[in-house]
Amino acid sequence: MTKGIVFTIEALVALAFFLIAISSIAFVTDQRRENLPLYETVIMNDIFQVLELKYHTEVATFMRTGTVSQELDSYLKFVKEKTGHTVFLKFMRHSYPYSGCDPYFSQKRLIVYYDIKESEVSYFHELTVGLCR
Amino acid sequence: MGKKGLFSIDASVAVIVVLTISILFYSIIQSFMSSLHNLDVRQRTASLIIFSNQIVRNEGAYKTNTETTSNLISMSELNSFISSLQKSNASDYGFDYVELNLSGRSGSVLFSSKSFRETARSETFCIDRFVVIKDLNEEGILRICAK
Fold first, then answer.
1. CA torsion through residues A60, A131, B141, A45, sign
2. Rounded to 5°, angle at Cα B29 from A18 and A16
3. Is residue B127 situated within a structural domain?
């Protein structure tokens, strides 16, 4: 083999392999992965459970009429005070808060209550509960 | 062959290559150490969530003969759990220090207890769990801290 000015071809090839390996490692380790929303999931599960334990009737009323009782509104404000996030509720055309929510995390939950619409009885209703930014 | 000055071209390039490799290795080691730390934090966060789930859904929850109600906290159950934790002097989740604080909506602390042994760890992990306090029939927050 003829020698170059600086390194032999073998040395250059070895160096190139080394640089490719390092670049690949840097690329792989630099992938920005979104964190799993662990805390948000836990918070949502807890809030929904508390709503079911204490505010089932109020939530059902919201889903029927779209109005949020003062007690429920006060509790959701308490949650906002503690977590810094506004909780939103959405069922068909009804939503709370009525404006100014940019949803970033939500779950669908089943609420059971008796309802009758156009002579059709339904028990299971899908409520969307989530957090605003 | 390269021309020779104070240093040969080969020697100068070799020095640059060695320096570059050293910097790269340093970055890799730094990145590795940072990953290990992040992994530890993530593992402890996950452990704390599971540990707090255990308290909120089972150990501290209100029980009847047939059912346990998740997030409905009974202070007597919490007391009994913390005393068992103090007797065992450890938690199964790798925490040496556990602190529980139950406060109502008004912010008044209704229950506060610690279970600990000597630990060199300084980083404390805390989580707030929204609950209903059975004894008062009031909403509250159970803050669980561990290290």
1. positive
2. 10
3. yes
Å between B71 CA and nearest CA of chain A: 7
A3 to chain B, closest Cα gap in Å: 7
Model confidence over A112-127: pLDDT tens digits?
988 877 777 888 989 9
Its domain, for residue A57, covers: 38-132
- pLDDT for the residue numbered A133: 82
CA distance B116 to chain A (A): 25
Q: What would the pLDDT profile of A92-116 be if each residue is shown by its tens digit?
A: 889 888 888 888 888 999 999 888 7
The tokens for B79 are 């007391």
DSSP characters over A86-131: -EEEEETTEEESSS---EEEEEEEEEEEEEEETTEEEEEEEEEEEE
Work out the angle between the directed axes of helices A9-29 and B9-54 (0-180°, nearest 10).
20
Q: Are residues A6 and A71 in the same domain?
A: no
Instruction: Report if residue B18 sits inside a domain.
Output: yes
- ipTM exceeding cut-off 0.90 for this assembly: no
- From CA A87, how far away is CA A105, in angstroms rounded? 10
Return residues 108-147 of B near A (CB < 8 Å): 127-132, 139, 141
Count structural domains, chain A: 2
**B2 found inside a domain:** no
Contact (CB<8Å) B1/A5 = yes
Provide the residue range defining the domain that includes B139.
Answer: 9-146
- Position B4 in a domain: no
- Whether residues A20 and A66 fall in one domain: no
Give yes or no for B35 touching A (CB within 8 A): yes
What is the domain count for chain B? 1
**Cα–Cα dist B41/B49, whole Å:** 12
